[in-house]
């Protein structure tokens, strides 16, 4: 912790506010912006935000005590000092500032003499005597407090009615490391972290385009979470950018403690639809590639995930590994992944349908079906296995890493093998469930994998109740639901519906870089050509 005592040229009194201030504010309690009083909430907050910074240091200290709990919260630090016969107050949040930056500021201020502040003291502090890279002036009290809560240090100079905000942020955080959900064999090993500035820097390092824009805003009346909209100005569709910006500004919440997921629900408003309408990525190279395509990225402070908008179903099945291999190998890996996703959806319902209606099986598939039926009906076996896989997944998440391998061994050998040997389950159910689970885990988007699991359970129930008509009706209903869905006014099932042959071919085959010359029509980019200088 920074020791401020050694830099004080004259200790100031820390007594309570004068009597006239207590009369003005009622026992030293100036009005709060979140006080539940008679005015409407919008008018109340607007009036509170306009509260000016007072000229008296004693009055300013009383307001800090009332607003941010100075003296009550141990992490709120305020130190009164006198420089050049001018009383000042430095206040900040302990643990959110860099000690060395404030140390240099205080060293410089100790050399001030009264004659150096004979004129405009604020101008002198701002221009000559605060050696920090970023310093701003703030005349509104609550804006100054919000900046300090965000990590800045505030320097109040008596009789000036202004706070100097010194950018000395030093948030607790971790170093960039490879995301666990988007690992690649070849490629970069850095990933996003929980600090917004680190994340935007990782993308800026890859995109040295002067057109790259980062718009910042704060969402949440209490949390004031920093949210940044990122796009390339001469590529992204201006209407798309404005639509995303308007939706974010329209969010009215107390806060975003869960960061991006709460922001997604507040903006996308998908209701009970299990399918994700937002693509998340923790890889800076993936975000940079999508920005070059014309997408818009939304960064939220305190989360390592970045939202990519708009999103289609086929965006959620893409993986960076495909583009780290040759086009042929990338296409092969892509098709293997598609097969796994298809198996996770339809393998169990189709097998169950062939079992209850053997006449549907062609002669070449006569071997499909159990030779013996277990003690539990097949339908219940499916449901129990589905729940069991989910329980094992949840247990793996909450199990300490050294014990995870042992837990998996117990689940796979003891539970699975004993359940089959005792006749509760049959081998085929366990086998096909394992294949479906592998297909789900091979899905790049975790949210899409969970949605496919729900659809698979619904299909199994439909087959158990209505056989072939149930399978056909539910499959058609799910497809229609996805076709009607839209992500920021873009069709969710594009390029399948509406059909775009060129884009569909790019989904099925990983094209070489030099043959991928145009950006997707879906994003309506301002520049369609990726390589304008090349012959079309």
UniProtKB/TrEMBL annotation:
Coiled coil spans: none
Keywords annotated in UniProt: Membrane, Transmembrane, Transmembrane helix
Residue stretches of biased makeup (Basic and acidic residues): 31-47
Pfam families: GerA (PF03323)
One annotated Gene Ontology cellular component of this protein: membrane
Keyword Methyltransferase: no
Top-rank taxon, per record: Bacteria
Presence of the UniProt keyword Membrane in the record: yes
GO biological process, one term: spore germination
Region ranges (Disordered): 1-53
Transmembrane segments: 335-356, 403-424, 430-450, 457-480
InterPro entries: Spore_Ger, UPF0353/GerABKA_families
Family per similarity comment: Belongs to the GerABKA family.
PANTHER family: SPORE GERMINATION PROTEIN, STAGE V SPORULATION PROTEIN AF
Record-given protein name: Spore germination protein
Species the sequence originates in: Paenibacillus sabuli
